[in-house]
Specification:
3 copies of one chain form a homotrimer. The first copy, chain A, has about 140 residues and is an alpha+beta fold. Chain A has 4 helices and 8 strands, in the order ββαββαααββββ. Chain A has a single domain, classed as Jelly Rolls (Sandwich). In chain A, about 30% of the residues lie in helices and about 40% in strands. At the A-C interface, β1, α3, α4 and β8 of A face β4, α2 and β5 of C.
Chain lengths: ~140, ~140, ~140
């Protein structure tokens, strides 16, 4: 059993930008030389989240609309009042989507479904360069 | 340290069907021969999610009602307009519940609470046969 | 590769009490003697959840308000009608936040962001003593 850690960097536009990072995660698994195990996809940021989706423009648009209706960007947030930030909504969205995703791989391939992609969603209110920690455990 | 991967198949009714898969996950852990480690429960589908709940009819009904109020099945979704599907809401529900759950086990037993069961929720709009990847890492 | 399991106990006030458990998780990783790997933070309870947040009073207050608006404590729940409990809302909140979080560590340090802390949220309606399972896998 071995542990392999890789950093991925992703340029985002913020504001609910949904980025498909499936290929990069698959490449990290392939390059690890491991055959079977798990990859943990972790964003070390408090205004980003990770999950999976059928990555096509319709689902992406629906997700962005839902998130804005659920946790509106334009209302009062205690975080904003305290710090003069405008991203109180971004923090809530990130906490509820979650910063971590664990995906098994078998024979060097992620066990994702055909219509299922790994996404990073950047909820912050400006373009950012994001770090994603990819850590493979396996044999 | 060893990796053991097993597939579980679950017949669902779709439409927020909540299935208790605790026994099947516990059986896979027991059969792996591993004593201590984690099991990753992963659904390779874009209209299913996994989590835990106190699996009793009241909580299940409350969850189904909440999900329908939060992300209604009957409204316009860009996914539906684009593909002629009727399951745009299913995709959003799955992305937000998440496809992956990691549970530690000790002495061959899942560390679940007494009133805590592992559930698969099928958000799709018709009965489906679902695959669940169970991957144990441990010693 | 080794597996190390530790229990953490947390005193909470219930009612959306948000507890920062970052230091305790970091201490468990340090004491494990492992250099690289993952820690799974798992709550064996059906009315608690775990995630990350920028742990400052504003974000905490915003999270508590959102959760109360989204899943109100004062409405009818089938769980309450069935069992005479008053915590039907607590169960739903826990299922949707999720009981499990996986965080990579490198050189004995959690790969958290500077403004990102690990939180346990207790959704139950009274003070509780909670158990958190911390399990490290790594080398």
């Amino acid at each position: 059993m071995t542990v392999v850690t890789r950093d991925l960097h992703v340029e985002t536009q913020g504001n609910n930008h949904v980025v498909d990072i499936t290929e990069a995660v698959q490449a990290a698994v392939a390059q690890s030389g491991l055959h079977h195990g798990i990859v943990t996809v972790f964003v070390p940021h408090s205004t980003c989240g990770v999950s999976t989706i059928e990555y096509e423009p319709g689902c992406v648009k629906d997700l962005q609309r839902l998130v804005e209706e659920w946790i509106p960007s334009h209302r009062d947030y205690a975080h904003n009042l305290r710090w003069g930030d405008g991203n109180g909504h971004s923090h809530l969205r990130a906490t509820l989507l979650g910063p971590s995703l664990t995906v098994p791989f078998v024979d060097g391939r992620l066990t994702l479904g055909t219509w299922q992609q790994i996404i990073l969603v950047d909820f912050d209110i400006r373009p950012r360069r994001r770090r994603v920690v990819l850590q493979m455990l396996g044999e």
